[in-house]
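Posting for a labmate who doesn't have an account.
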Amino acid sequence: MKLLTPTDFAAYELLDSGDGEKLERFGEYILRRPEPQAVWGKFLPVDEWDTLPHATFSQEGSHSGKWTRHRAIQDQWYIPYTYKNMRLRFRLGMTAFKHVGIFPEQAVNWNFIYDATSAIEARKEVVPKVLNLFAYTGGASLAARAAGADTIHCDSIRQVVNWAAANMEASKMHDIRWLIEDAFKFVKREARRGALYNGIILDPPAYGNGPKGEKWQLEDMINELMGEVATILAPQGSFLVLNSYSLGFSSMVLENLVRTHFGAVTADAAESGELYMPEQSGRRLPMGIFCRFLR
């Protein structure tokens, strides 16, 4: 099992965590947000938690809340991310669901996607075709496109697809194909068509709804989804990235899904583990689990 964290994301910093919260810097702004996994005590003194943030998010329901501004902060701002020849730019903003438009720990997967796509593209046999499912604001889509892939970005929420398109423009890219679609339905349709992809990226939520009210429950549906995904991933010259934030899953769950649907040889060559962000005190905040391979 691997423990991975971004090493070159200068625009992001986890300052502290504890008592169910985290204190983060995104570019020039510092935000205070809930973090259910931070069950330990805070390291920084209380007065710094009170004076450092430009804004604090307060949970008001199970899925939403509100921001309180303490200092001047833009409604929207941009931060860069660079890796090799990949130069991304993300638009950030404070949403009613505590998210700001980026999950910085995913930078390690963006790097993997960029390298894997570049390796396939270098063979010059085919332009890599990459499908990003549950794609949110498109960091993984941008990474694939930056490496030359024909990229399809699929998410069920129109607002985040529009956000991803804004990130593409800010990153000076073009020609990503946008789908406002239920990911499961789309994969099943592609399987019936006999479509093949060189790369598939999945970051499914614990639960959610498609654009037509389709229900998604991770533990009930992920096995069937992975079975369909296995039929549309090219048997050679391909990669998979599977990520999860479900607090009830371990990385071994993702390993077992890969072993079940892609075979022991692929599973033995895969890497899996946890993503984390380090804070100034040296503690590490877990931020999700992953399993990925290139074959």
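Reply:
Got it, the structure tokens are right above this. Helices lie at 46-51, 107-122, 139-146, 158-170, 183-193, 218-232, 251-262, 264-269.
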